[in-house]
Specification:
The chain has 290 residues and is an alpha/beta fold. 43% of the residues lie in helices and 12% in strands. The chain has nine helices and seven strands. The chain has a seven-stranded parallel beta sheet with strand order 3-2-1-4-5-6-7, sandwiched between helices. Helix 5 links the parallel strand 5 and strand 6. Helix 3 packs parallel to helix 4. It is globular. The structure holds NADP nicotinamide-adenine-dinucleotide phosphate. NADP nicotinamide-adenine-dinucleotide phosphate (NAP) binds next to helix 1.
C-alpha cells in the first residue's frame, strides 16, 4: 500500500533495525505505533524522530509491551486496534549463536517464544481487526538464516525457518482476503544484535554485514510493493534460491563456518555413550572439526 495510507504497529522499534525503520516509515508519511519494552527508550525515540520530521511525515505514538508476557500482549492488541492498525511489522527478535551442544533449554524456549510464537500470537489476535480493513499487511522480519541453516545458528535458524513457514502458509491461507502476509530476510546487519563472537565469525567466513538503514529501506519497499518474500544482499539471495531448491547441494560449502563456531568445552574428549551416532564431532590432527 502507499506508505501514506499505512497505520503501522512496529515491534522491535527500539532495536538497531527498528529505529531506522521507524524513521523511514514516518518520513514516507506512514503513522507508526512504536512497540518496545522500555518506556524511556520509546519516548526518546519518538521525540528524536519527531524533531527531524518534515512536512508530510506521519503520526507517531508508542506502547510498552514485553512480547513474552501474555497480559502485555493483550494490552498491545487493544491499543493496536484503537490505533486502527492496518500494517503489522514484526521486527522484535532475540539472537542465538554458538555450538548447539552448549545451549540450554531455557535459551531455546526464549528464542522460539520471541522470534516465532510472539509474531504468530500477535498476528492471530489482530487478524479479525486486520480483516476488517480495506487492505492490510503483516510483514515478518525474518533472516537469510530462515532459508539457509548455518553452523552455529541452529536454534536461531529454527525460529526463523519457522517464521518463514508460518508466513508462507498464512499468505496462502489468506489469499483472496485483503490481508497480505510478507517476509523480509536480511543478512547479517550491523546492530548490537550481533555479539563480538558473531562479528568474529562473520570476519573469518567473509560474511558481509549491511547497515540497518538498508534493511529499513527494504521494509519500506515491501510495504509499498507488497512483495511476498524479499532477501537482501548477494550472494545470500542466490544461496537462498539454491538452498530452497536443493538444500543438500550446499552441505559441503560450510567448512569454514563450522570451524568458526566456538567449540563446546567437551569437544576433543573421547566420545561417551551419550554421544549420538551421526552428530559425533570428528577431530583432525590439528584439533579442528571437519
Ligand atoms: N542484526 C542482524 O544481523 C539481523 C539479521 C537478520 C535479521 N535480523 C532480525 O531483525 C530483527 C531486529 O534485529 P536488530 O538487529 O534490530 O536487533 P536489536 O537491535 O537487538 O533489537 C531487537 C529488538 O527486539 C526487541 N525485543 C527483544 N525481546 C523482546 C521482548 N521480549 N518483547 C518485546 N520486544 C523485544 C528489543 O526490545 P528492547 O529494546 O526492549 O530490548 C529490540 O527493540 C530481529 O528479528 C532479528 O532476528 C537481524
Amino acid at each position: 500500500m502507499k506508505p501514506s495510507e499505512a497505520r503501522i504497529v512496529l515491534t522491535g522499534a527500539t532495536g538497531g533495525i527498528g529505529r531506522e525503520t521507524a524513521a523511514a516509515f514516518i518520513a514516507a508519511g506512514s503513522s507508526v505505533l512504536l512497540v518496545g519494552r522500555s518506556a524511556a527508550q520509546l519516548s526518546a525515540l519518538s521525540r528524536s524522530i519527531q524533531s527531524t520530521a518534515v512536512g508530510g511525515a506521519g503520526r507517531i505514538a508508542w506502547q510498552v509491551a514485553d512480547l513474552g508476557d501474555a497480559t502485555q500482549m493483550d494490552e498491545l492488541v487493544g491499543v493496536a486496534a484503537e490505533w486502527r492498525c492496518n500494517v503489522l511489522v514484526h521486527a522484535a527478535g532475540v539472537p542465538c549463536f554458538g555450538a548447539f551442544e552448549t545451549a540450554d533449554a531455557e535459551t531455546m524456549r526464549r528464542v522460539i517464544d520471541i522470534n516465532l510464537l510472539a509474531p504468530m500470537r500477535l498476528t492471530q489476535a489482530l487478524l479479525p481487526h486486520l480483516r476488517a480493513q480495506v487492505r492490510a499487511q503483516v510483514i515478518c522480519l525474518g533472516s537469510a538464516l530462515g532459508r539457509i541453516g548455518l553452523p552455529g545458528f541452529s536454534i536461531y535458524s529454527a525460529s526463523k525457518f519457522g517464521l518463514r513457514g508460518f508466513t508462507e502458509a498464512l499468505r496462502r491461507e489468506l489469499a483472496g482476503s485483503g490481508v497480505r502476509i510478507q517476509y523480509v530476510g536480511p543478512r547479517s546487519t550491523r546492530t548490537s544484535f550481533n555479539s563480538a563472537a558473531v562479528e568474529a565469525y562473520n570476519a573469518s567466513t567473509g560474511t558481509a554485514m549491511d547497515s540497518p538503514n538498508r534493511v529499513a529501506q527494504a521494509l519500506l519497499r515491501s510495504l509499498h510493493d507488497e512483495t511476498a518474500e524479499r532477501f537482501i544482499g548477494f550472494p545470500e539471495r542466490l544461496a537462498v534460491r539454491i538452498n530452497g531448491a536443493v538444500p543438500t547441494l550446499l552441505d559441503g560449502s560450510f567448512d569454514k563456518h563450522r570451524r568458526s563456531v566456538p567449540p563446546p568445552p567437551t569437544q576433543g574428549t573421547l566420545p561417551t555413550e551419550r554421544d549420538q551416532p551421526g552428530i559425533r564431532p570428528s577431530i583432525n590432527s590439528s584439533g579442528a572439526t571437519r
